[in-house]
Design a protein that fits this description.
Keywords: Hydrolase, Membrane, Transmembrane, Transmembrane helix
GO molecular function, one term: serine-type endopeptidase activity
Largest sheet: 3 strands, antiparallel
Membrane topology: Multi-pass membrane protein
Main location: membrane
Number of helices: 11
Number of domains: 1
CATH architecture: Up-down Bundle
Distance between the termini: 34 Å
Radius of gyration: 18 Å
Mean pLDDT: 90
CATH topology: Rhomboid-like fold
InterPro entries: Peptidase_S54_rhomboid_dom, Rhomboid-like_sf, Rhomboid_protease_S54
Strand content: 5-15%
Length: 230
């Protein structure tokens, strides 16, 4: 089920969503200009490498073995990873989901509150991945944790929206308007099962960042709905 658009129009332009997308594209174009050695250096400096944080000696040993200097502060990766991607498909997929689900949430929260929500939820999502992969030596990059939080909040605040999706039925293309609650519930269950039966090392996907982000978004959505609608 590939989402094409939702059925709720936005009242205001989602400027923060546009800016986030533009920054992600700009960073990725910069990545594309790097040599393979420089790209690895960039990913390890600005992606989250749990072993770099949990082991005092890991960075020194890794630098001696690879010749790659880790110059950025460790903490910055919990923010910077949201603007770094591993490939064109990774970037396009994340930005497309942000474009579909982010505009209505920004409309609901307002520009500044949405930005704060996006960054803080991305940090919480990355902490979920970090807590369950404390010895990982692979850099986690991508905006999917923060975008999962956007989807989690959307699930709570806009359950009656429809997500018009491309669905192949018996090898024939079809467009189906799926209730947002159903679409996002199925998506979350897939992430949960993948997280339970796979790992970021085997799949290259940080499923627990998705799960943690979605849960954080849901909690915020329930808080906001209770505060403003009851």
């Amino acid at each position: 089920m590939f989402p094409l658009y939702d059925t709720i129009p936005s009242r205001k332009k989602p400027y923060i969503v546009y800016i986030i997308i533009a920054v992600n594209i700009g960073v990725f174009l910069y990545q594309e200009s790097l040599s393979r050695f420089e790209l690895i250096k960039f990913l390890y400096n600005f992606g989250i490498v749990p072993a770099r944080i949990t082991s005092k000696k890991w960075a020194q040993i890794w630098q001696l073995r690879t010749g790659i200097e880790l110059f950025s502060p460790k903490w910055i990766s919990f923010i910077s990873h949201m603007f770094v991607h591993g490939g064109w498909s990774h970037l396009i997929g994340n930005m497309w989901f942000l474009f579909i689900f982010g505009d209505n949430l920004e409309d609901n929260l307002g520009h500044i509150r949405f930005f704060i929500f996006y960054i803080s939820s991305g940090i919480l999502a990355s902490l979920t991945h970090f807590a369950l992969n404390i010895n990982s030596q692979l850099p986690m990059v991508g905006a999917s944790g923060a975008i999962s939080a956007v989807m989690g909040a959307y699930y709570v605040l806009f359950p009656y929206s429809r997500i018009v999706s491309f669905v192949p039925l018996f090898f024939l293309p079809a467009l189906i308007a799926i209730p947002a609650a159903t679409y996002l519930f199925v998506w979350f269950i897939f992430q949960l099962l993948s997280g339970l039966f796979d790992s970021a090392v085997n799949s290259g996907v940080a499923y627990w960042a998705h799960i943690g982000g979605f849960a954080a978004g849901m909690l915020y959505g329930f808080f906001r709905r209770r505060k403003y609608y009851y």
